[in-house]
């Protein structure tokens, strides 16, 4: 596999691990100033979108179907497979494994703090301390999803690199 595939896959996996690590930090007790700014979630989705689009292009250029990509993924070293699988499982559990009452949407409007009340099906005003307690859990899913996208992009790029290497269609790049 060419070095560009390795770099692309490694950067995507590394960024995915960082974003999933941020999502894991939402379970640590205490107030984290990292989750307060509104730029954290878009900053996670931006690289995920770019990496996924470029991974999609690389998979298209490899001209292989899903079964060939799966076989190519299985040709990766065992540690790479295990690491990517572990990241994917952690990401899916973080994104979709939280209970319905565990995360609530929170926002600040005109200096007041609001949280979504599932029983009333509307936003209700809450105290600042409750807002700060709910803020990390409201960001958890929105950090885990781009993390999963990055890990999937890494898997796709590395599998496409293996397909290209096996076909002999790529020189050492």
Name the features:
173 residues; mainly alpha; 3 strands; elongated
- Along the chain, the helix and strand elements come as HHHHEEEH
Label the structural class: mainly alpha
| Major sheet: arrangement of strands | 1-2-3
What is the share of helical residues?
55-70%
Query: How confident overall, as mean pLDDT?
Result: 82
Shape assignment: elongated
Low-confidence stretches: none
Q: Would you report the number of β strands?
A: 3
- Total helix count? 5
End-to-end distance? 8 Å
Specify the biggest β-sheet.
Answer: 3 strands, antiparallel
Report the portion of residues in β strands: 5-15%
State Rg.
Answer: 19 Å
Description:
With 173 residues, the protein is mostly helical. It is built from five helices and three strands. Strand 1 (106-109) and strand 2 (112-117) form a beta hairpin. The model has no long low-confidence stretch (mean pLDDT 82).
In short:
The chain has 173 residues and is mainly α.
Provide the fold topology.
Elements: H1 3-24, H2 40-62, H3 66-74, H4 78-96, E1 106-109, E2 112-117, E3 122-126, H5 128-167
Antiparallel strand pairs: 1-2, 2-3
Helix pairs in contact: 1-2, 1-4, 1-5, 2-5, 3-5, 4-5
